[in-house]
Design goal:
Helix content is 16%, strand content 32%. It has 7 helices and 26 strands. The protein is globular and about 75 Å long. The strands form 6 sheets. It has a 6-stranded mixed beta sheet. It has a 6-stranded mixed beta sheet with strand order 6-7-8-10-11-12, covered by helices on one side.
Length: 546
């Protein structure tokens, strides 16, 4: 483990000059996000080994003057597949108002908080970790909370350079997570730093909702966001780096995303993103491994493409290894759709669903088709549209989508799926360009939440399960002052022969209270592999302790 981490750190930060910690006068800061593959199981040994690895990573990162380091969700004292942590591993976390410095106070705080507090102090680094928190219930007004009982929260803890706990955020939107309780007071996670940056932070599934994710940006005017996650990637528009990068671009924020690495259940994906510019560094991996990504981050998010991103095709993990990544696929049977006619060099397709309309102008390289026309196991393409409410397994959400998607056959049911073995795929279609114009209802300001009632994200994906470089995509929105219409324009300006997804994924938060209109759980099975796992494993784990 030690040698692996050293090699990864040395490779990824080779272009960073040695420097002192950032100050309020600095134009940038140095951030690290950790894609961490944890030791497994609810045991003292697993927790201890994870803690030791966290401390080693922090120590290595300090050599590069990292100002802030972010660790993933559920990889320290909790194992997602083994259910709620037992009392020996969950920790009590004091609120920031106590100004607690746990270092050297093992009689008052857990070893986890003690050791991480000491590491933050000795390495002079802001540290963000996610823990299973245990707390005594004092809020008897909440039906989920019975006085005198212990309850569990999915919690971010932030230490400053002195080792003081300066922020505690409890997850508001749980993704199942049997045995855990959603935040009772719905408080947002916010903290200030000595290098002049105010951060907001939330956890994984929170990203999909107005509270807290959009509120952090629009209500609190925050432009730097921290995001610990154990994301379960879903085709075609919700794979990890795909949605991380598009979320950062739409809200024009610096976004520090640290993902858990468990590819056999679909979890991987981490990155450091700078607003509309896109990724400064990102990774998706089909292999079980730990990676540390480090980048200089401009305090004001980049808003143009005058500087080339450092993400190159050679930086993407070997595509063939992504065959091992478990991906769910969303069932689009309720979508309106039309097959692309590959015999036409230029074509325009118009689709309408409810109040949403989409126009696709597509150019195909016909010479490319003729060179590969006899290939088998090749993708074909459809354009699809949907306005409605879908199930995210544990909560419903209003969704508007206009997408070009790859399909494994002529049937709509095959869209949003991939072939099992990348090495057996041959491309027969090269799309030279795409111009997409989507027309939706104009977003409306919600005075209660102090945020807009909808948001639209430019999503792209290749067979590497990575998005296109942001320099290859243009995305712009405008509103018609004379009507209630909102116009979204998105273009692809470089030829692509291995495209899986291109289009707009929209969230209409004001419809989240409505029943799902997709009439499916979120995959092509009545009960998806992921849902079944999350429901049954905590129960089996609990029973095994008796």
């Amino acid at each position: 483990m030690k040698s692996l981490l050293f090699v990864l750190l040395s490779f990824m930060i080779a272009n960073n000059d040695a420097r002192q910690q950032s100050t309020a006068e600095s134009l940038e800061y140095i951030a690290a996000v950790v894609e961490y593959h944890p030791f497994r199981g609810n045991s003292f040994d697993a927790v201890q080994r994870n803690l030791e690895n966290y401390l080693e990573i922090i120590n290595n990162a300090s050599a590069e003057s990292v100002d802030i380091i972010v660790f993933p969700e559920a990889t320290l004292n909790r194992d997602w597949e083994f259910g709620v942590s037992t009392k020996f591993s969950a920790v009590r976390v004091p609120p920031e108002a106590e100004n607690a410095i746990p270092c050297g106070k093992k009689d008052e705080y857990s070893e986890i908080l003690d050791q991480l507090s000491c590491a933050a102090s000795s390495e002079k680094m802001y540290i963000v970790v996610n823990v299973a928190e245990i707390a005594n219930c004092t809020d008897t007004s909440n039906k989920k909370c019975k006085e005198g009982e212990d309850i569990f929260f999915n919690t971010n803890v932030v230490f400053d350079r002195s080792g003081k706990i300066i922020s505690r955020y409890r997850k508001i939107n749980l993704f199942g997570e049997a045995g855990f309780t959603e935040s009772l007071d719905k408080a947002l996670g916010i903290f200030d730093t000595d290098f002049g940056v105010r951060f907001g932070h939330f956890i994984c599934f929170d990203l999909m909702f107005q509270q807290p994710a959009v509120q952090i940006v629009e209500k609190e005017n925050i432009t730097n966001v921290v995001f610990p996650t154990m994301w379960f990637s879903e085709l075609p528009s919700l794979t990890a780096v795909e949605i991380q990068e598009s979320w950062a671009a739409t809200h024009n924020v610096n976004f520090l995303a640290a993902g858990a690495n468990n590819p056999h259940i679909g979890s991987t994906g981490s990155g450091i993103y700078s607003g509309k510019f896109g990724a400064l560094n990102s990774t998706m991996n089909g292999l079980e491994r730990t990676e540390v990504l480090i980048s200089k981050v401009p305090k004001i998010p980049k808003i143009n493409n005058s500087v080339k991103s450092n993400i190159k095709p050679t930086d993407v993990p070997k595509i063939i290894s992504m065959d091992k990544l478990h991906l769910t696929s969303y069932n689009m049977k309720m979508y309106q759709s039309e097959l692309i006619n590959v015999t036409l060099e230029h074509q325009t397709i118009n689709l309408t669903h409810g109040n949403m309309s989409c126009e696709f102008k597509i150019t195909i390289n016909k010479n490319f088709i003729s060179k590969n026309k006899d290939a088998s196991n090749h993708y074909i393409y459809r354009v699809v549209i949907f306005e409605g409410v879908r199930s995210f397994d544990y909560k419903n959400g209003g969704v508007n989508e206009c997408l070009l998607v790859a399909c494994t056959s002529n049937e709509l049911s095959s869209c949003g799926h991939r072939f099992e073995n990348y090495s057996e795929i041959k491309s027969i279609i090269e799309i030279s360009s795409i111009e997409l114009t989507a027309t939706v209802l104009k977003p409306v300001y919600n005075s209660t939440t102090q945020a807009m009632n909808s948001a639209y994200y430019p999503v792209t994906l290749t067979t590497a399960i990575m998005p296109l470089n942001r320099q290859e995509v243009m995305f712009a929105t405008s509103s018609d002052n004379e009507s209630d219409k909102h116009i979204i324009k998105m273009t692809m300006n470089s030829p692509q022969s291995e495209l899986l997804t291109f289009g707009v994924f929209g969230r209409v938060f004001s419809n989240d209270h409505l029943p799902a209109t997709d009439k499916v759980i979120g995959s092509n099975h009545l009960i998806s592999y992921l849902t079944l796992m999350l429901v049954l494993l905590p129960i089996l784990s609990y029973l095994s302790r008796w």
